[in-house]
Design goal:
Low-confidence stretches: none
Order of helices and strands: EHEEHEHEHEHEHHEHEHEHEHEHEHHH
Helix content: 40-55%
Shape: elongated
Mean pLDDT: 94
Strand order of the largest sheet: 3-2-1-4-5-6-7
Radius of gyration: 21 Å
Distance between the termini: 17 Å
Structural class: alpha/beta
Strand content: 15-25%
Length: about 375
């Protein structure tokens, strides 16, 4: 029996969906997946995802303690203890940025356990320099295989030295069935008027202020026919966002529900007319998967790592330059004026995203495991 450890910083809804998808495939293979997380405490998002009754075991290294609340030595001790107790045959590790993930890689190398890198990084995520890229290439030699989101992520790892045949796709998926229109369309409308939907942390790279400026110009040009805008999320830029909305005089048409758990987001997905993701830096953008799974057409920044794999230009949505406000304004106008068929595009989005499912994740990871064990 092959035991696979999946190490994430924190298990949220889409991590559990992936683990569940993997478990379904593993049953027929006689394999056993085990979830491992650094902490139950939310790291980037305050998810509320109970794991106690989940059918696949998920072991939390630090419990409710966030990593920054404990000494690093204690984290390493606990991580080593958990890995030794689980004793996996293969470990899939989410990224190499966190020191704890590098520690897990070191543990695997010391104990002769093949490792698989789970990565969503692409080359243009940030400015790259030779020394850092050289260091990454050396670290990546410790991994036997990799599972990535899509083509930009695969190209980047190839450039860092991982062979093409050791890289598999399927990492960046969500539980599509949760968002399916057939399941959520009967949820009561949260807002009476038609609206564009955006879901982000309120941080600079999400480009919310420029999105609001584009929307204000869109309202100016559309007049009474304009759709509203819903911005779900919260974060350190909350005050700036509110201030910008007031300055643009669009406070009567922009809605700020705050940070919402997955179930609380479903009414907004169910009744939106179009989804917008305007980030100027984004490794993937899983919220785009969620929107497409809800049957929404999408407007996605060209800086998002998902755009190449998910957006079929003019079929299920459009891409746009996130620093070009008039371009986004024009796309909003196209949708609300009926120049493009939003319903038809939404149907195309729903059809396309079915490939990017937990089943796709499971298939890709199993291929990676077989490759890693065969080459060890």
């Amino acid at each position: 029996m092959t035991k696979i450890g999946l190490l994430f910083a924190n298990y949220g809804p889409y991590h559990l969906a992936r683990l569940d998808g993997l478990a379904k495939h593993c049953r027929s293979l006689g394999w056993q997946p085990v979830g491992i997380e650094l902490t139950r405490s939310g790291i980037a998002y305050d998810w509320e995802t109970p794991i106690e009754e989940f059918p696949v075991p998920v072991i939390s290294v630090l419990g409710q303690n966030p990593p920054e609340a404990v000494k690093f030595g204690y984290l390493l001790q606990r991580l080593g203890k958990v890995l030794s107790e689980v004793d996996p045959d293969v470990v899939a590790i989410a990224g190499y940025f966190r020191p704890a993930m590098l520690a897990a890689l070191s543990w695997c190398l010391w104990h002769g356990k093949p490792t698989i890198l789970l990565s969503e990084s692409k080359e243009d995520d940030a400015q790259r320099n030779l020394w850092q890229e050289t260091a990454k290439s050396l670290i990546l030699k410790g991994y036997k295989a990799a599972l990535v989101g899509g083509q930009p992520q695969k190209r980047y790892l190839m450039k860092l030295g991982i062979p093409a045949d050791a890289i598999f796709c399927g990492y960046n998926v969500v539980g599509n069935e949760v968002f399916h229109p057939d399941k959520i369309r009967t949820i009561p409308r949260p807002i009476a008027r038609p609206y564009f939907l955006a879901i982000n942390r309120f941080i600079p790279k999400k480009n919310i202020l420029r999105l609001l400026s584009s929307y204000a110009e869109y309202r100016h040009q559309s007049g009474d026919m304009a759709w509203d805008l819903v911005l779900c999320g919260d974060g350190p830029m909350r005050y700036q966002v509110e201030q910008h909305i007031t300055q643009l005089n669009i406070q009567n048409s922009v809605h700020l529900p705050g940070f919402l758990q997955q179930a609380e987001l479903l009414p907004y997905f169910a009744h939106a007319s179009c989804f917008i993701h305007a980030s100027i830096q984004e490794q993937w953008g899983l919220v785009v998967n969620e929107a497409m799974a809800a049957g929404l057409p999408v407007l996605v920044s060209t800086r998002c790592g998902c755009v190449e794999d998910l957006v079929i230009e003019g079929i299920n949505g459009f891409s746009f330059d996130p620093e070009n406000s008039p371009e986004l304004t024009d796309l909003m106008l196209k949708f609300s004026s009926g120049i493009v068929d939003a319903n038809q595009m939404g149907s195309a989005a729903l059809e396309h995203i079915q490939k990017f499912s937990p089943d796709y994740f499971a298939t890709g990871l199993i291929q990676a495991v077989k490759y890693a064990t065969a080459t060890s």
